[in-house]
Amino acid sequence: MRRRPARTFHLAALLLALSTASRAQAPDSLLMVRYRTAEQLLRSGQYQQALPLLESLYRERPDVYVFYDRLKQVYENLKRYDDALRLIESRLDARAPNPALLAEKGRLLYLKGDEAGAEAAWEAAIQAAPQQSGTYRVVYQTLLELRRFDEAIRVLERARRTLANPSVFLLDLAYLYSLDGRYEEAMESYREFLQQDARRLGFVQTRLEPFMDEAAAREAGIAVFERAVRREPLNPAFRQMLAWLYLRNGDYDRALDVYRALDRLQQAQGQLLLQFALQARDAGALDAARAALEDILRQSGASVLPEAHYELGLLYEQQAHDGDTTAARLARHMYRDFLTAFPGHPLVPDALYRLARLELDVLYHPQAADSLLAVLLDRYADHEVAWQARFDQGRLALQAGDLSAARLAFLRLLDARRTGPLAEAARYQLALLDFYDGAFEAALAQLDILVEDAASDVANDALTLRLLIQENRGPDSLDTPLRRYAQARLLMAQNQPEAALDSLNVLQQDVGAHPIADDVTLLRARLLRRLGRPTEALALLLEFPLRYPRSPLRDQSLYEAARIQEEDLRDHAAALDTYTRLLTEFPGSPLIPEVRTRIRNLRGEDA
Fold first, then answer.
1. CATH 1.20.1090.10 holds for 486-603
2. Which residue ranges contain the repeat TPR (predicted)?
3. What is the pLDDT of residues 467-482, one digit of tens each?
C-alpha cells in the first residue's frame, strides 16, 4: 500500500520523460507497454520475471530515472547487491559526487554485509557537501532506516558542530535519543527546543507520548525539567512541561504544586487550577482535585469561583455515591452555597437538579428532593435538565407508594421524548411498575422493545429483568414466588430496606428449590450491605457459588463480595483473592474488564 503513490509518481515521470523525448520522434509506445507489464509483475511479487524487462528498458533509456530506480529495487529484492551497486556507480560523477547516491551506496553495502565499505560511503557522502544540512539529513535518514541509531546520532551531532547552528536537527536528535533509550539527552534536546520556541509545547508532548509508558523516560524528563525550572523559574513552558510529566507519572500532588505556581505566574485567576482539578478528578486523584478546588475558593477574586464551587460539589457527590456520608453532607453544603452565592449562573439548573438527586438517592430525604425538583420545574421548565427532573418526580411518586402517579409521570415523559436515553429509562420504569404489579406479560412487552437496541443505556437491565421473569414463572398459575419477589423489589425501590429484607427472608424459607432462590439470596445480600451489615452480606455472597452451582449469577456474587471486602471492610488482600478467584473460575464473564481494572488499582499499577 505504501508504494502506490511512488508508482503513480514514477508513471507520471516516465510519461513526462518520454513525451519530452518524443518531440523530435514518434512516442515510443512500446516502452510504455513494457514498463506497465513490468509494474504488474512487481505488484504481484514476480521480481525475477520483471527483471529482464527493466534491464532492457534501462539499456535503451538510461536517462529515465524511473527505469533506473525500479531496476535497482528489483536487484535489491533479489539480493543482487553487486548489480545494484554497479548501477549506482554508473551514475556517480567523481568530479561532482552526489551525497544521496553515496548514502544509497552505503545502504546497499551494509545490506550486502560490507559494514566497513558502508561507513566509507557514508563518510564520502558527508565530505561531498559538508556545509549543507541536507547532506547530513540524507545520511542520517539512511542510518535510521537501517536502525543504526548510534551512528545516526553521531552524524547529527557532527552536523551541529560543523554547521555551528544551535537549532539545527534538535528534534531529530531528540527523537533518535528516545529511540536509543538515551532519555535524559532526549529531554535535554526537547528542553533546548522549547527554550527557542515555547509555542511548540503541545507538539513536544505529542512527540514524547509514545515513550511515556517507559518509567525511565518519565523520570529522565522530570529530572531535566526540574533543573530547568530551578534555573528559569519564570519560564512557563518549562513549568507546563514539568506538570505534564508529573501527571504522566501519576504524581498529582507535585503536579498540583506546579499548577499553583503557574496559576500565579500567568495570573490565571484559578483557571489553570480548575483545569488541573478536572484532570485529577477524571483520573481518580480526588484528594489532589479537592485541594486544587479549595485553593480556588480561597481566592476571592478568582474568575472561576462559581465553577470551583460546583465542581467541588460534584466531587463530594461522587464520593457520596460510594457510601461516604460525610462527603454527602459536604456536597449538599457546596451546592447550597453555590445556589446562594451565584443565583444567576448558567449552572444553577444543574446544581438544583444534582442537589435534588443527592437528597433522593444518597441522603434519602424525598420531601427535600420533591421541593427542589418543584423549584427547578417552576423556574427552568424549558431547560434540558427539567426533563430529568420530571423523570425523578415519577421516582418520587413510586417511593411515596403512589404507583398511579408514577406511571402517569413516566407515560407523559415517554410520550414527550419518544426516543433517546431518557425515553428508554421511562419505558424501563414502566416495565418495572408492571413487574411490581404482577403484570408480567405487560412487563415483557415493554422489555422486548428495550432489548432490541443492544447499545441503549438500559438494555442490560432490561435483559436481566426479562430473563428473571421468563425463568421464574410458576409453579402455580399465579406465579406466587415471583410475585412475592417483585413485592420485595418494590419495597426496596420505596426505600424500605428492612421491610424488603424481612419479606425476602420469609420467601427464602418458602421457595425451597424454586429457580428464583438464587435471585432471592443475591437480593438479600444487597439489602444487608445497604443496611450496614456487610459481614453478613459477605458470608451470603462467598457461599453463593457453592450453594447454587448452576446459577448464572455466581460471577456477580463474587464480584459483589470483593466490592464489600474492598470498600466496606477495607481488606484489600481478601478483595484481591476474590477478584482473582472470579478471573479464574469465570474467564468469560462480562465483569472481567472491570475486575481487571480493580485488581490493577488495588496493586497500585497503572490502568
1. no
2. 167-200
3. 999 999 888 878 999 9
